[in-house]
Write a structure and sequence with these properties.
24% of the residues are buried. The N and C termini lie close together (11 Å). By secondary structure, the chain is α+β, with helices and mostly antiparallel strands. The strands form three sheets. Strands 3, 6, 7, 8, 9, 10, 11, 12 and 13 form a nine-stranded antiparallel sheet that branches. Strands 1-2 form a two-stranded antiparallel sheet. Helices cover 53% and strands 21% of the residues. The chain has four helices and 13 strands.
Length: 331
């Protein structure tokens, strides 16, 4: 447990060095780039899923058409065999004339019946053969087209996936760069490059709010969509315990942007907010150091690196920069 001295006064920044300003500006540029890359990564993920769904539909059509083609191939083979047998039989028996049929008939009705039946058998066999052949060619052509579509869709899948993987690798590089910049900023701040004048806001025994390995920097008032950052982000592994920085009463809540959050009304008269929690811990009145939540990425932090957004409101009023308190407690 990391605890500050029994009495700590909050400082407000005046004129940080140009080097610090440059590092902070660069870090903000990288943060914005990471946000844009994450949005593009999500878009590519959606595109990949849509392409995969389309591929599965085409693959199903290919399989169904393949079964239909195999059936019509069997029908074609059978019709061709029947027709060949019929032609072979006629060839062996020689040409059959109407006169021969008449001589062999016992009556006129018998003659007409035999003649019509013979004509029907010949033409009917040929019609069946022709129809099956047409179906075979039609389904075969459809199979070729479907297999071509399947190949094209596989190429689309591979292309989108390659873009997604390349973007993920680049995103990891940018995150490493941001971590490095945050580390440099923290080193500059701890070397005395963060100047300020004391303010008369006593803090008392203050416990660092994240209980475990973490990193943070002075990102107070960093640009955010529609507003300025009203606290400090403390980055840590998902599920790292968050503890009450002072004794007080814990109220749990959930907001669209904040996700799962805790409002700690300190016995010291100040109010502290813990946002983007993975899940809650103890509630009600707690002592300093009690686990009241766990680091997460809920709310508008979803999909980003897990972190605790920590805010400090002296006397329950407007938020002020908590960095000096966190830095003193972290040391």
């Amino acid at each position: 447990m990391i605890m500050a001295s029994s009495l700590l006064f909050l400082s407000s920044p005046l004129s940080p060095s140009a080097t610090l300003q440059e590092k902070q500006a660069e870090a903000e540029r990288v943060r914005r780039k990471i946000e844009a890359m994450k949005a593009e990564s999500q878009r590519l993920a959606q595109e990949y899923n849509a392409a995969k769904d389309a591929y599965e539909v085409i693959r199903g059509e290919v399989e169904r058409n393949k079964e239909e083609l195999e059936k019509v191939q069997r029908d074609y083979k059978r019709a061709r065999t029947i027709l060949n047998e019929r032609l072979r039989s006629i060839y062996k028996s020689g040409e059959v004339s109407s006169l021969e049929l008449l001589l062999e008939s016992t009556s006129l009705d018998d003659f007409l019946s035999r003649y019509d039946f013979f004509s029907y058998i010949g033409s009917r066999d040929f019609q069946i053969f022709s129809e099956v052949k047409r179906l075979r060619e039609e389904i075969g052509e459809r199979q070729r087209q479907l297999e071509e579509k399947e190949t094209q869709q596989m190429q689309t899948l591979a292309s989108v996936n390659a873009k997604r993987q390349a973007l993920e690798a680049s995103l990891q590089d940018q995150q490493k760069l941001l971590d490095s910049l945050n580390k440099e900023i923290l080193e500059l701040l701890t070397q005395g490059l963060y100047y300020g004048t004391p303010r008369s806001t006593p803090i008392g025994n203050f416990v660092f709010p994240v209980q475990g390995p973490c990193s943070f920097s002075n990102d107070w008032h960093a640009p955010r969509t529609g507003h300025l950052h009203q606290g400090n982000d403390i980055f840590a592994a998902m599920g790292t315990p968050c503890v009450a920085c002072v004794s007080g009463t814990v109220n749990q809540g959930e907001g669209k942007n904040a996700g799962l959050y805790v409002r700690l009304v300190g016995d010291d008269g100040n109010v502290y907010y813990y946002m983007h929690l993975q899940r809650f811990g103890a509630t009600g009145h707690v002592s300093a150091g009690t686990v009241i939540g766990y680091v997460g990425d809920t709310g508008n932090a979803l999909g980003g690196p897990p972190h605790l957004h920590f805010e400090f409101h002296p006397g329950g009023g407007p938020a002020v920069n908590p960095y000096p308190i966190l830095l003193a407690a972290y040391r």
